[in-house]
Amino acid sequence: QSRFTIYSEYCNNRPVSCAELANLSRQAQYHQFFEACRLLRGMPKLSLEGFLLTPVQRICKYPLQLAELLKATPDSHPDRQAVEGAYNAMRAVASDINDRKRRLESLQKIAAWQYTVEGWRGPDLLDRNSAMLHSGELTCRCMINGSVQWTKEVVAFLFDQTLILCKRDLLKRNLHIFKDRVSLDAARFVDIKDGKDANFGVSVKHAWKLVTDTTQYLFSCRDRKSKRQWVETFEARDARHQQGLDERPATNDERRLVIATIRSPLVESNGIVARKSESQLGLHSSDSSDGPMSRRNSGAKKNSIRKKPSS
Asked: Does the record's keyword annotation contain Cytoplasm (predicted)?
């Protein structure tokens, strides 16, 4: 079974290989070379991309074929145990491929989303996060060391390890402007009852807080249903965290795939120009700080996804 893990890498890397093949095929010398190889071997008139798809198709068919073989194999047959073992192994392989594919797609969405945020500050999301859990519009009050700093209408994006606060871009409604970030490792979630909050001295409704050693964020939702969604998401996230079930951050290999496939339909539909340099996704960033009001120094900013590519 372990020998089939290469299929997962092959499937995840396929968009990259297809893009490279398409680029080469537009060049006459490569197009002629590929066609000459096909004719020389007497192969059917199928594009090279079609041949590259074959391993992906086969790995999906193996569990189905083995399932049919298992049905036709009597319990008393000497091969029954071997067929059943092969069937279970290939099901596990297919499941692993699907899980890795979903994870890569989740990482791609995170990177693509961060690219739409103007004025990004702090570490890239992929440094510690692997999934977006929830988002919504909230009224936020920020208090630092007992002093209220600001009150804003924000759009909050909850990831598995970080909460990002943004303002809407008034000209481009589908884009956002970075406001603040909260590391969930350093914050405590508090469900607030309707009424006057003792710390902020204001009456609140449908509210909850994130509290750190020096900072409090008081969030007010539009209605009870919206608050319930936030509370349930935080509770589920905290339960997974306490059980040690947190998703691991992106590996360098996953980051490279994200960079190479950042020209996904998700990105292109937002009119975002993808970047190709590894450093622009923070692959070599040594700054792992992440917390309320965090900032990067000028050197670390070079690794942020939001940094514009040089011409």
From this structure: yes
**Dist CA 280 CA 278 (whole Å):** 5
User: pTM for the whole thing?
Assistant: 0.73
Q: Which residue matches tokens 């189905």?
A: 64
Q: SS3 sequence, the chain?
A: CHHHHHHHHHHHHHHHHHHHHHHHHCCHHHHHHHHHHHHHCCCCCCCHHHHHHHHHHHHHHHHHHHHHHHHCCCCCCCCHHHHHHHHHHHHHHHHHHHHHHHHHHHHHHHHHHHHCEECCCCCCHHHCCCCEEEEEEEEEEEEECCEEEEEEEEEEEEECCEEEEEEECCCCCCCEEEEEEEEHHHCEEEEECCEEECCCCEEECCEEEEECCCEEEEEECCCHHHHHHHHHHHHHHHHHHHCCCCCCCCCHHHHHHHHHCCCCHHHHHCCCCCCCCHHHHCCCCCCCCCCCCCCCCCCHHHHCCCCCCCC
Tens digits of per-residue pLDDT, 17-71? 888 888 898 999 998 998 898 889 888 888 888 888 888 888 889 999 999 999 9
Round to whole Å and give the CA distance between 139 and 239. Answer: 26
- Which tens digits make up the pLDDT trace of 138-169? 999 999 999 999 999 999 999 999 999 999 87
Residue range 190-243, pLDDT digits in tens: 999 999 999 999 999 999 999 999 999 999 999 999 999 999 999 999 899 888
The three-point CA angle 144-147-152 to 5° equals 75
